[in-house]
Amino acid sequence: MQHLMKSNFLIILFCTVTGIFIKAQSENEPISFNEYLKYVKDKNLGLAAQKYNVSIAEASILTAGIFPDPQIEMETSNNGVSKDMGYTMGGAISWTLELGGKRKARIETAKNEAEYSKLQLQEYVRNLLADATLSYIEALKSKALLNVQKESYQSMLKLAKSDSIRYKLGDISKVTSQQSRLEASSLLNEVYQLEGAQQQSITALSDFIGSDSTGKEVIGNLNSFNRSYTLNDLITNAFNERADLLASKQNINTAASRIKLEKANRVIDLGLSAGAGHNTVANNEIAPSPAVNTVKLGISVPLKFSNRRNADLKIAEMSYSQAETEYKQIENSIRMEITQAYQQYTSAQKQLQQFDNGMLTEAESILKGITYSYQRGESSILEVLNAQRTYNELRQNYFQLLAENSSALIDLERKAGIWDIDF
Known about the structure:
This protein has 2 domains: 30-66 and 100-267 and 312-416, Outer membrane efflux proteins (OEP) (Up-down Bundle), CATH 1.20.1600; 70-98 and 269-303. It is built from 10 helices and 6 strands. By secondary structure, it is an alpha+beta fold. GO terms for molecular function: efflux transmembrane transporter activity.
């Protein structure tokens, strides 16, 4: 009788814990994938910081177009402190006249650098969306695995209840009843473990949406990641659309404009000046003089001895060659990356077909048949447990593979410069 009371207490405890799981699940706030991506685009702190680079580069265009500031000079002197030679007062304005198209070259370079920053921002967004989606997929996978384990626990709990009643009726032994109860307890521990993993995957979304995501629930169908692509089309699209390749090409233009700027900087600039002066009356007895007004114009020509050292120009030319080489290297990398990603995605698709051919249905049918036979006393509890574990492993492997297939597609589209993920 004491053993029966203990068994009933454990069953009630299992039911209570299960009810807490269901309640906790219902209290989570759902967040759809489209809503999640909107948060990523609008509130991601890393993206907000990257946007400043574009604003800074655009402001640099205005800075590049500024003309040199003029200079005003004012002076006065006493021609003879003790001999009354009068005073001299004067002023002048001077300005540097840039030659060689320096201002135009600066503006062109700044515009190319701004365009390069915009393409870098596009590349950042491309990778951000892909990484954020992968994190969402991980949360979906964790949720699916948790649900599989919960369903397995519920099934074993139901069997444990049934075995407790059968043991009371004397249909099965005490050991058999204990075995099903212990298996339910073991499954409950695994539920705890997967629940923690699922909560961590939800919290990990916080890094992408710029706020705490704890308590939210992801929703979506992992079966939505099926596309039909040809390898050559993907490579062609990547060459036309990949932001990092376009940025590398733009970097060549930027390097070319820097060469023009360095050449323009080697051209001499002229210093122009204009001024006026006034000498007051000199009352000195030896050399008296009337008041005199003067006007002066001037031009200054710098001696560009520094042009004999053309290190800056050589650096600009080497940077241009480097940019061209980097562009070719990125092209080769893209071709390789897409080929590998395509192979990975194709492999995942083939593996999914195995499950689509009825593996899960067959495993479920076997489990139901063995469970039915066990309840009729025609099979052992060990056979039921083995069938249950096989079915659980297949379902877990299925959701693992769905997540791998989803990740493979996301990676393939990331590499190909495509984005049509929506589920």
